[in-house]
């Protein structure tokens, strides 16, 4: 019995122990592999893995174990390849071409790109409570106001216009421009204690003439953002949590989502969104809704609260 146990321990020890070099290969391979698979965990709604940080840890451990098994069995091939790579990079560096620094830069660039696209996707249930004050909010957001319309048009064309490479991107750029114009000037001001006050979009816009800022709480922001986006052709909705209300922008397809994510990260909000994931929801019909909340300084920022109790579409 002791001998059998000793043999099993030896097998485990042979399986997991290796030199530092091979362990480095395992970890630098496992990390981008995990980031590449993250979006599929939630998309496929896998048990344990889907949408859970604990699931990502489990997946990372799984990749490490599998890669350890692989590198142990092809380590001589790995050594040979690495000798060739080191030799080739050394020669290339001497001639002032692609060198070690470029390799490291490209690796971290790959990791950054994968992390940027490893969105935490919540597949939303269709079973929610009635949206509180739904009729009032619908009236305010659907209000036909020349003040709101003129603001929306100007906001949609104020930022990023030089980044439009093709007509198909024009709407996307305009929606992001609206976000930039509103969120860059938003100052949170709470409602009176024990009261709920909803400011109309044109009322909030009038604050600009006082100090060049918008003022209000989360529902005032959501009303202005949703109304402005609607005036420039966007589909929007409001999402309510127990303590918060925020707007979301409808994305027509995964292709459009990839385009807007790349534009956010590489063009419009590259400083704000650097090394941060883009967050959105997928509803039961498969529609994609991008977070346009004011709690982040770029579209698709982290959700303030995942506990959704109501949805109001327009």
The assigned structural class equals alpha/beta
Which CATH top level class of the largest domain fits? Answer: Alpha Beta
Gyration radius (Cα, Å) is: 25 Å
Oligomer: single chain
CATH fold node name of the largest domain? C8orf32 fold
Classify the beta-strand content into a percent band.
5-15%
Structure write-up:
The chain is of the alpha/beta class and about 325 residues long. The chain has two domains: about 1-120, no CATH class; about 135-314, C8orf32 fold (Roll), CATH 3.10.620. The chain is about 55% helix and about 10% strand. The chain is built from twelve helices and eight strands. It has helices spanning about 1-15, 20-45, 55-75, 75-95, 100-115, 135-140, 145-155, 170-185, 200-205, 210, 220-230, 255-270; strands spanning about 120-125, 185-190, 215, 235-240, 245-250, 280, 290, 310-314. The chain has a six-stranded mixed beta sheet. It has a two-stranded parallel sheet with strand order 2-3. α2 (about 20-45) runs parallel beside α5. The model is unreliable at about 45-50 (pLDDT under 50).
Gist of the model:
Helices cover 54% and strands 11% of the residues. It has twelve helices and eight strands. The longest helix is centred in the first third of the chain and has 24 residues, at 20-43.
What is the strand and helix layout of this fold?
Layout: H1 2-16, H2 20-43, H3 53-73, H4 75-94, H5 100-116, E1 121-123, H6 134-141, H7 146-156, H8 170-183, E2 186-188, H9 201-205, H10 208-211, E3 214-216, H11 218-231, E4 236-241, E5 244-251, H12 254-268, E6 280-282, E7 288-291, E8 310-313
Parallel strand pairs: 1-6, 2-3
Antiparallel strand pairs: 4-5, 4-8, 5-7, 6-7
Helix pairs in contact: 2-3, 2-5, 7-11, 8-11
């Amino acid at each position: 019995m002791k001998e059998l146990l000793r043999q099993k321990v030896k097998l485990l020890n042979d399986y997991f122990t290796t030199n530092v070099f091979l362990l480095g290969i395992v970890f630098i391979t496992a990390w981008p592999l995990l980031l590449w698979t993250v979006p599929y965990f939630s998309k496929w709604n896998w048990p344990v893995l889907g949408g859970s940080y604990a699931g990502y840890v489990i997946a990372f451990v799984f990749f490490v174990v599998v890669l350890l098994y692989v590198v142990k069995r092809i380590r001589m091939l790995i050594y040979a390849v690495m000798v060739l790579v080191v030799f080739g990079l050394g020669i290339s560096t001497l001639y002032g071409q692609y060198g070690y620094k470029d390799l490291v830069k490209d690796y971290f660039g790959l990791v950054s790109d994968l992390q940027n696209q490893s969105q935490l996707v919540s597949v939303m249930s269709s079973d929610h409570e009635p949206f509180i004050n739904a009729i009032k909010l619908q009236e305010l957001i659907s209000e036909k106001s020349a003040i709101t319309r003129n603001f929306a048009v100007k906001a949609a064309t104020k930022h990023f216009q030089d980044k439009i490479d093709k007509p198909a991107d024009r709407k996307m750029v305009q929606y992001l421009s609206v976000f930039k114009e509103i969120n860059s000037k938003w100052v949170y001001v709470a409602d009176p204690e024990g009261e709920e006050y909803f400011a109309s979009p044109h009322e909030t816009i009038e604050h600009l003439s006082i100090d060049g800022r918008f003022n209000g709480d989360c529902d005032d922001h959501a009303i202005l953002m949703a109304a402005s986006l609607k005036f420039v052709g966007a589909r929007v909705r409001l999402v309510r949590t127990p303590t918060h209300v925020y707007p979301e922008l409808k994305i027509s397809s995964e292709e459009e989502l990839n385009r807007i994510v790349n534009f956010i990260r590489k063009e419009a909000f590259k400083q704000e969104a650097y090394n941060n994931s883009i967050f959105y929801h997928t509803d039961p019909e498969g529609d994609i809704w991008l977070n346009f909340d004011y709690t982040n300084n770029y579209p698709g920022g982290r959700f303030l609260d995942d506990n959704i109790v109501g949805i109001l579409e327009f």
